[in-house]
Amino acid sequence: MEMDFPVINMEKLNGDERGAVMDQINDACQNWGFFELLNHGISHELMDKVEKQTKEHYRKRMEQKFKEMVASKGLDSVDSEHNDTDWESTFFLRHLPSSNMSQIPDLDQDYREVMKEFAVELEKLAEQILDLLCHNLGLEKGYLKKAFYGSKGPNFGTKVSNYPPCPKPDLIKGLRAHTDAGGLILLFQDHKVSGLQLLKDGKWVDVPPMHHSIVINLGDQLEVITNGKYKSVMHRVIAQTDGNRMSIASFYNPGDDAVIYPAPALVEGEEDKGKLYPKFVFDDYMKLYVGVKFEAKEPRFEAMKAMESTNPIATV
Ligand SMILES: O=C(O)CCC(=O)C(=O)O
Ligand SMILES: [Fe+2]
């Protein structure tokens, strides 16, 4: 039976349907790697401001540059598949462990302020979701936050993207297929222009645009910590021939020096026999990931295993 994309109404976590909603989240984590949140507590007014300012910023500061890039690379007239470019216009805001917001050029002051406010809300939501995951996994409250903490707290940042109309969306992807390297990803996506797809049972499935929703997906680190109980899932963006898709993806990731390994409570059997994933320093994983982002994740885990066996990390 074809299952529908999981949509979670967070309001119901406060009522007598809590158990069923928790099960729905657990099922989404096990079978989809993705779910979409409604009534997540972030005000619609704030989200509307973020959307308006992001679209305005694109028109004022990014669109011309994108068009010039397309023209200079001849991307609008390709006649065969392009596997080394993405049809996206992006910039990155870092919030934690320290903010880079004041160094980003061309951000209007009110846009800067609204994005700061949004990031604070998203950080709270991320930690709330991590605790729901802890509960479902049978881990103590705060386990995942602590696992990500390292010595300076998590890395938390936002990639602001626009996927402008693309004349050849079958030849150039908006964003090529990948799994996310980090922890928990929170996405505010355009509610009118679709394009995000995830790979499920060998088929690409649309992540449905919904007004004022936040889409959550799980990165490679949660696969490792859960010893594969939850998995990161391949996804990609298909640009549209008409319509510009906005997407604001926030990455709640481990700190650079956080040591990542399967939670002992989720490793079955004696000693380390049931441990399916390696132990490593998050930054070592990221150094590897940048070069192989658009490849399968399994060789990344294997490379980390090889590193672990030559240079084991003391148990902390
Ligand atoms: O734009 C999107 O919807 C997804 C972006 C994404 O997958 C990423 O930046 O890792
Ligand atoms: Fe992604």
Automatic annotation (TrEMBL):
Q: Name one GO molecular function term.
A: metal ion binding
What this protein is called in its record is aminocyclopropanecarboxylate oxidase
Q: Which GO terms describe its biological process?
A: cellular response to fatty acid; ethylene biosynthetic process; fruit ripening
The metabolic or biological pathway listed in the UniProt record of this protein is: Alkene biosynthesis; ethylene biosynthesis via S-adenosyl-L-methionine; ethylene from S-adenosyl-L-methionine: step 2/2
Q: What class of enzyme is it?
A: oxidoreductase
- Keywords, comma-separated and alphabetical: Ethylene biosynthesis, Fruit ripening, Iron, Metal-binding, Oxidoreductase, Vitamin C
Organism of provenance: Cucurbita maxima
Coiled coil ranges: none
Q: Which Pfam families match?
A: 2OG-FeII_Oxy, DIOX_N
Determine if Oxidoreductase is one of this entry's keywords: yes
Q: Where is the signal peptide?
A: none
Supply the EC number(s): 1.14.17.4
Q: Cite the Fe2OG dioxygenase domain residue spans from the record.
A: 154-254
Q: Which Gene3D superfamilies match?
A: B-lactam Antibiotic, Isopenicillin N Synthase, Chain (2.60.120.330)
- Does the record bear Metal-binding in its keywords? yes
Provide the family line: Belongs to the iron/ascorbate-dependent oxidoreductase family.
